[in-house]
Amino acid sequence: MLWAVSVVALLLILAIIRTRDNILAAVSLTFLGVAVAGAVWVLHPEFSAAFILITLVYVVAALTLVIVAAAGLSEENRTVEMRPVALAALGALPLVLMPGAGQRAAAASVDPLIVPLAAVLLLFSFVVATRLSHD
Amino acid sequence: MTELIFLVVLLAGGMAVVAVANSLVRVIIGAEVAIMAGIWGAAFSGDLSLVAVAAVVGVAETVLMVAALYRLAKEGYV
User: Fold this and answer.
1) Is residue A56 part of a domain?
2) From CA A113, how far away is CA A118, in angstroms rounded?
3) Is A7 domain-assigned?
4) SS3 of A106, please?
5) Contacts of A100 (CB under 8 A, 6+ apart)
6) pLDDT tens for residues A81-121?
7) Which residues of chain B have a CB within 8 Å of the CB of A61?
């Protein structure tokens, strides 16, 4: 079952790479978020809260990207010079094949301490974003 | 094993999207794919608290990157 989700995710990533349109790429990102949320649900069926969480995160993220991309960014085919950094990051990939801890029982409850910390983090990032985009 | 392959697909896919990007929107999309690998890794560990933290951090970094992109677009750098 997880194989199917992996293949779908691979196809969506290839679609993001192949397409020339930023808006289509953002929509593909939304479907990729839904695919990852479905994979979480397949792995741990007791994490049904996580499905809603991840789906909401990526619907909102992709909508924001669509709005920004549609708000008049001009595509000039200017290359972003980050390729060496991005390719160097691929060098860390074999690390995930190292042996790790086995599958444990899932803890399907959220630590209440996370809620105020998450609220502070979101407030901080919204304040920084407002200061950044309004001079 | 499939879980690790899915993690590698997400990480390598995100990095590949960044590596072939021709606009800053694509860089943000690649970073989102890599953040999704982080969410998947947290879910793989079997703790819902880690999934919640990863999702909240995903929202925060999206907000910050889109705000920076908006600022750059206003100043004509994009």
Assistant:
1) yes
2) 9
3) yes
4) coil
5) none
6) 666 766 776 676 676 666 665 666 777 777 788 888 888 88
7) 32, 58-59, 62
Averaged pLDDT of chain A: 76
Residue B19: strand, helix, or coil: helix
ipTM above 0.90, yes or no: no
Q: How far apart are CA A24 and CA A15, in angstroms?
A: 9
Total domains in chain B come to 1
Q: Find tokens 């990051």 and name the residue.
A: A89
- Interhelix angle B24-44/B48-74, nearest 10 degrees: 170
Judge whether A66 lies within some domain. yes
Cβ–Cβ gap A86/B19 under 8 Å: yes
Report residue B52 as tokens.
């919640």
Report angle CA A71, A58, A74 to the nearest 5 degrees: 20
B31 interface with A at CB cutoff 8 Å? no
In a domain, A107, yes or no: no
State how many domains chain A has: 1
3-class DSSP assignment, residue A12: helix
Cβ of residue A35 closer than 8 Å to a chain B Cβ: no
